[in-house]
Amino acid sequence: MSLKRIAVMTSGGDAPGMNAALRAVVRTALYHGLEVYGIHRGYAGLLRREIEPLTSLSVGGIINRGGTILRTARSEEFKTPQGMQTAVQVLNEFAIEALVIIGGDGSMRGGVELSRLCDVKIMGLPGTIDNDIPGTDYSIGFDTAVNTALEAIDKVRDTAYSHERVFVIEVMGRHKGFIALEVGLAGGAEAILIPEVPYDMVDLLERLHDSYHRGKHSSIIVVAEGAARAEDVKKFLQEHTPYHLRALVLGHMQRGGAPTAFDRVLATQLGVHAVQRLLDGHTNEMVGVEGGRLVSVPIEYIQTATKTIDLRKLEIATMMAI
Ligand code: ADP
What we know:
single chain; Rossmann fold; binds adenosine-5'-diphosphate; 2 domains; alpha/beta; seven-stranded mixed β-sheet; 19% strand
């Protein structure tokens, strides 16, 4: 049976490039003669029937916009048996045959649960700045977040150098250190603290002393929020060194802004691929990119697999701080 009507939503934490993905999903579907419905505010909006048809015009002028025009939300209610039941009921009420979910790890898990409860074809599209979703090398928004954080770090470097200060900069990453590692490597950090690798503060102290005595009077230390808080690292180092230390939390600015070319292209390719897979009869999958190729994995894969960080990059960063 061929598809007639699909729906698309953005869910969980917003990420730059979600709009570009949404645009690609909508236009690919329209190109193939499908009807497309947009669900506002993720699973929360699904439960509240915040659903409307989308046209090509609805997604015009958004390829360059951060955030998501469909808005996004988190929903505890959706996770309950009653919430799940309502979600299935609403999808059936609107005669939705397939649902494209653009979101992070949690949103994909929601997709897994839905796929077990109903016949609606589920297609996940990884969109999170954290880049922590297995089954894809990159998720939409990661590249932009890294570049945004890097721009901030480059600016801080100027003042760190001029005033001979050590800046401890906290970037996003509650459970994974992908952003910290990438940004630290690109920003020439003296040290990078990530949740995946235990670190020793005394070792950090010694590294700082060594580099100071080699004539380096300003440094950047990048910490993922899940590894340590910038303020705590600063306090510890301040107690044991004569250097001028500052702590900076980059915070939510990392989520916003216009997506990079990389994220726009990735989002467009993944959006097209998601709809193409549905049209080809595939279901309950998540699309991704691996080694530069568009791929897809069964959506349950995100529950069983974990994405591992490239520790060689951490070694390289340490080597560069000699
Ligand atoms: P992200 O998608 O960015 O990781 P969240 O983890 O907050 O963001 O997940 C977004 C939403 O997905 C949650 O508010 C919830 O409604 C749904 N969700 C998350 N985890 C599950 C789960 N294990 N089962 C069902 N739904 C889930």
